[in-house]
Write a structure and sequence with these properties.
Helix content is 26%, strand content 23%. The chain is an alpha+beta fold and 145 residues long.
């Protein structure tokens, strides 16, 4: 009857909630925030918090118009640790007739980006912890009360 009238319906226990969950949004995830800050110099092509990926668009220097790079960050965990994310860099090299080839780059830059993100995420986490502790302090009454 509900379907015929265009109203909602429930099948068994599917719609019942079994308690609160823990929700982590991009604005509260230190690893995500650190990555967004560290990649702020690059144009972003795809940002998918639910899928755990950030992909920049192709970018390069003004001096080298025949080469550009794309950075992909894959989040493997929300914890701040060395295996929590994967940094992939692709390099596009084009010749004078605009024929391009793409290669995956594995060098120190991958690790430098990764550790810069982890360091910044650690700083964000410490600052967040300090703010939480500061806000949980009980309010003190004035001495003359």
């Amino acid at each position: 009857k509900n379907i015929e009238e265009g109203r909602a319906f429930r099948l068994g226990d599917i719609g019942k909630k079994k308690g609160g969950g823990t929700f982590q949004f991009a604005s509260s995830n230190p690893l995500w925030r650190a990555t967004m800050e560290k990649l702020s110099f690059a144009p972003l092509n795809n940002v998918d918090y639910a899928g755990g990926t950030i992909v920049t668009d192709w970018f390069g220097s003004e001096n080298q118009t025949d080469e550009s790079i794309k950075i992909t960050i894959r989040f493997l965990s929300n914890e701040i640790r060395s295996d929590a994310l994967n940094v992939i860099i692709h390099k596009k090299i084009c010749d004078d007739s605009n024929n391009c080839r793409t290669v995956m780059v594995k060098n120190n830059l991958n690790d430098e980006i990764k550790f810069a993100i982890l360091k910044k995420a650690s700083q964000f986490e410490k600052a967040d912890d300090a703010n939480i502790k500061a806000n949980k302090e009980p309010a003190r009454l004035p001495k003359n009360y």
